[in-house]
Design goal:
Strand order of the largest sheet: 1-2
Helix content: over 70%
Number of strands: 2
Number of domains: 1
Radius of gyration: 22 Å
Strand content: under 5%
Order of helices and strands: HHHHHHHEEHHHHHHHHHH
Largest sheet: 2 strands, antiparallel
Distance between the termini: 21 Å
């Protein structure tokens, strides 16, 4: 029976779990670090334009990350999960048809983001504390990026489709090559050279869109080539609600979680805005490191989505849970190490982008208070990705909503209770702990398949980990 399986599918079902996750995750971590590096390069070059430009980018960043995380993480996870489960259950025709269904979903979401943010950007960024030069910079950057939202969605959707087949390497190669290309392109468009005039902050946005355009072309060429495991075709295709639902039932619930994550950042930005433009720039630059953790954990989470989805599609529930806890341990260790480094040496990160003293002071406060708790954020996030693979997202989403409530309510109480900006940041740390513990507790307690017995069932699973 297994002889008929594609080698990539057999790898997910039969190979040792930890080495397989690390091997598949390595190129995917590379791809996500490269993608995060794209944003960091932009921040570095835009920071050379001054504090107003840096604060303007900080205002737009939660909205950009909402689109990124929705397209790559939430809907992307739903796409990868649906394709992985179809391949695991040997429904090859459904897997092929899911590609075009996914692209249609991406087109609709891209239109929604474009219309909503371009039309409502001024209102949004003003409410987040933007004014003067910072607000002007935010609107220029936002209008360009969201005007080209379809390119972001196309790139991340094609990447998710390919990852759903177990191929993590190609998106990595494409993203890294694009980041290398962007390194000279971004400053060229921002500052100009010779007869080419500098476009300022708009140049950074245009360079980013060119990156997504080129990457999408390469991914599409592969997907419709003989080397691809999938064979998407318009010939004889009939749109089926069941296939849309297979993606959306994971993707839409995941979108709620993504909105909660970015809403927490956006509202915190608004609270920090009470302390001025330099505080916004400091918090926005510091929280970039938190956003760097998202693609880093996603690099591990993407193969976990494929492994968990494929195992569940094949009826191997116990292996799916073993993979989940191994991935959780790796993610916690990885993100906690980064958080402890950031808390110990905050200026090493912040000074890469700007050296204005007030900005450095605000950002350093954030990293010293929140950094030591990053491991819980990584734990909660990787369990969210594993839940995508299982097609069971209710509890992880509720965990993220709990995080939002703690972050916003705690931040508001701190601000109005006289605890100043440090109290706002302490609320963010507490929210991360709530997020990680809530996700771990509910999955260990049987949120996917019914009660497994806490803690006895958890102990039994842990005893079997070396066998994976």
């Amino acid at each position: 029976m297994t002889a008929t399986l594609d080698p990539r599918t057999r790898l997910l079902l039969e190979a040792p779990i930890a080495p397989t996750l690390l091997r598949l995750g390595a190129p995917n971590v590379l791809v996500m670090l490269a993608q995060a590096g794209v944003g960091l390069m932009e921040t570095y070059f835009v920071g050379k334009l001054g504090t107003d430009a840096l604060a303007g980018m900080a205002l737009v960043f939660p909205a950009v990350m909402l689109m990124q995380m929705t397209s790559a993480g939430a809907m992307g996870g739903g796409i990868a999960s649906a394709i992985a489960r179809a391949l695991g259950a040997r429904r090859r025709n459904d897997a092929d048809a899911l590609v075009l269904h996914a692209l249609l979903i991406a087109a609709v979401f891209a239109l929604v983001f474009m219309v909503t943010v371009v039309a409502g950007g001024r209102w949004l960024y003003t409410r987040m504390g933007g004014s003067g030069g910072a607000l002007d910079a935010a609107l220029v950057y936002s209008n360009w990026v969201f005007g080209g939202a379809v390119l972001v969605w196309l790139f991340n959707t094609l990447s998710a489709v390919i990852r759903g087949t177990g191929n993590m390497a190609l998106p990595a190669y494409v993203t890294v090559a694009g980041a290398v290309l962007l390194l000279p392109l971004s400053p060229l468009l921002i500052f100009g050279w010779g007869p080419l005039p500098g476009l300022g902050i708009a140049g950074g946005a245009i360079a980013l869109l060119l990156y997504y355009l080129a990457g999408s072309a390469v991914l599409a060429a592969y997907l419709w080539s003989p080397r691809s495991l999938l064979r998407p075709s318009l010939r004889g295709l009939q749109l089926r609600w069941a296939l849309f639902a297979d993606i959306l039932r994971v993707g839409l619930v995941g979108t709620v979680s993504t909105v909660a994550t970015n809403l927490a950042i956006g509202i915190t930005t608004a609270l920090v805005g009470a302390y001025g433009t330099a505080a916004i720039a400091g918090y926005g630059t510091a929280s970039r490191l938190e956003y760097l953790l998202v693609p880093l954990v996603f690099g591990l989470g993407a193969p976990l989505v494929a492994m968990v989805g494929t195992c569940i599609g094949a009826g191997q529930r116990e292996r799916a849970l073993r993979a989940t806890w191994i991935g959780a341990a790796i993610a916690f260790a990885m993100t906690e190490a980064i958080g402890l480094w950031a808390a110990a040496y905050p200026a090493a990160w912040l000074s890469l982008f700007n050296t204005e003293p007030a900005m450095i002071e605000a950002g350093s406060q954030y990293l010293r208070i929140v950094g030591p708790w990053y491991g819980f954020f990584g734990l909660g996030l990787v369990l969210y990705f594993a839940s995508q693979g299982a097609g069971r997202l209710l509890w992880p989403v509720l965990g993220n909503i709990a995080r939002l409530v703690v972050a916003v309510a705690g931040g508001w109480l701190a601000l109005h209770g006289g605890y100043a900006i440090a109290g706002v940041f302490a609320a963010q740390a507490a929210a991360m702990v709530v997020y990680g513990i809530a996700n771990a507790w509910t999955i260990a307690g049987g949120a996917w398949f019914g009660p497994v017995g806490w803690p006895r069932g958890m102990a039994a699973l842990l005893r079997r980990l070396p066998q994976g």
